[in-house]
Amino acid sequence: MNFHSSAIVHLGNFHNNFKSISEFLGGNVSIIPVIKADGYGHGMIRIARELQTYGNVAYLGVAHIKEGVILRKNGIKQPILAMSCLDSFDVDMMDEFNITPVVHSFYLLKKVIDYAKSYNKRIKVHLKFDTGMARLGIRKEDIEESIALCKKEKDYIELDGLMSHFSDSESNKEWTLKQNSLFKNIVDFVENEGFNPKYKHIANSGAILQFKETHYNCVRPGLILYGYTPSCNLKGIIDIQPVLEIKSQLISIHSLKKGEGISYGRTFIAPYDMVVGVVAFGYADGLFRNLSNKLECLINGKRCKSVGTICMDMFMCDITDIEASISDEAIIIGKDKEEEITIDDLARESKTINYEILTNIGKSIRVNRVYMD
Questions:
Q1: Residues 19, 36, 140, 247: which is the catalytic one?
Q2: Nearest Cα to 217, choosing from 143, 163, 157?
């Protein structure tokens, strides 16, 4: 493993973010923290443990049944909601490890009921409805039949929650409110059919920050838990701080003469005599290769521009005008004195979203993850 590099997870910032979200929501709204994809790269198991102290956590939100199993095998006792990719083969595992499934089709609903009948059990589920995301969710034409089946088989199925998902809550108010109106109609229909689901949830990070009418009695924050917003115009609404910091170090320093090229493809030709530092962090550690010649890092409080193509295990940077020595710290994400490089900076330069940067860098098995209060 490349222990030149560390991912520092600032748990104090995580707790600050959770408390800020809770205060913003008020006391009548429960929270399903989304900790899928290994906690957005921060470490799902540790993040789940940190959330055990909060009474307003309804469920821990994961993507797959297997993520829930990992949590259970590591001692996590809180309710777990598996939000996607449930198929008929997952039902027995879900039951064994006490994981609540999100049922997103009439077909899956029948499979869960068949399983419950075969073992004479009553299975708790959240039903997911498609209100415009057009990805997963019970379609409009299947709603009445699905609810009728739940009513008929009420001894085998328990509707603990109703949910949907916004497709554009960070930037499209009109469409978001239209989706919310459709969801409210579904909630009203289900309740009029005699059901009283404990949780109703549709709001993700963008909707939490902008549309109070979408909060119902439960929300699903993801990105904002980790200190970022889904679009820059949402910054400052609540007090959140980045949780993840990425550090490595200089492993070599050498000169580069004017006119000499560097790294694969010689995509950078030195315009002057310069000093180059080699940082032990590359695309195998989660950097995107398209950040070549655009990435910056912080060394001794100064911004240093990368030069040449990012390699699998390292990248090079211009340290001509700074005092630097081998083994000096290089900050890829984080603060150093007055300077700061954020996930948003990397996302902008690589023309992607901050979610992708977080999960890509955070998942590297070669980076030593360190937790700090």
A1: 36
A2: 163
Q: Give every CB contact of residue 18 below 8 A, 6+ residues apart in sequence.
A: 31, 33, 51, 54, 225
Q: 36 catalytic, yes or no?
A: yes
> What confidence tier does 40 reach under pLDDT thresholds 50, 70, 90?
very high
* pLDDT score of 362: 76
pTM over 0.90: yes
Of the candidates 172, 202, 234, which is a domain's last residue? 234
**Boundary (domain end) residue, out of 201, 234, 267:** 234
Active-site residue (options: 184, 264, 272, 335): 264
- pLDDT tens column, 314-356: 999 999 999 999 999 999 999 999 999 999 999 999 999 999 9
Domain count along the chain:
2
Q: Is 1 contained in some domain?
A: no
Residues 139 and 73 in one domain: yes
Residue 2, domain member (yes or no): no
